[in-house]
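Quarterly update from the structural biology core.
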Amino acid sequence: MKFDLVHDIQRAYRKVVDSISRPGLISTLKEETAMLEFHTGCFPSTEVLALMLLDIEVTFKVVSKREEKITGMLNQLTYAKAVEANEADFIFILKDYDRNQLETAIKSAKTGNLMNPNESAILIIETESVSTGTDLVMAGPGIETEQEASIDGADTWLDIRAEKNKEYPLGIDTILTDTSHSILCLPRTTQIKKRVTV
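Predicted structure, tokenized:
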């Protein structure tokens, strides 16, 4: 079957909204990714998110060793405009990112302003795996007490994210994608700490 830009995008959107409202919930886009008939070099779940989030009215930045190639493909698919990280509505940090590039992109990402905190960037970060492990503990709105998860590579961006989100309502929202087509959403209101083992 062919990927349906209306039906499949709506279904993916509902899953993202559900994951945002319940931080720590791991959703799968496996059904949607199976319909894709192209490959940009991103994770298939990242490609579904790109089709869902990008259009002619928004801007994006790709952080990857293949930045130029993938940027061109996403632009052709969505007509969204590529800009630098400090102007981007969406920042796609792909699995092959350079750590310095990642830090620069997150530090320069838009956090909105007090009148319009929604004018901030959303980060889409690719990681090898997100799972229901116990390495990280999450708390905040949408979480009854606490929620646990394991996220490969979280050490590279966890502290920078916390710094960007320290002046609520300003901040950045994050969506993680992995090789198994899973997504995990981390709104700016979600606090994440490494579990301390005794």
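The helical segments are 7-21, 30-33, 44-53, 67-78, 99-108, 158-164.
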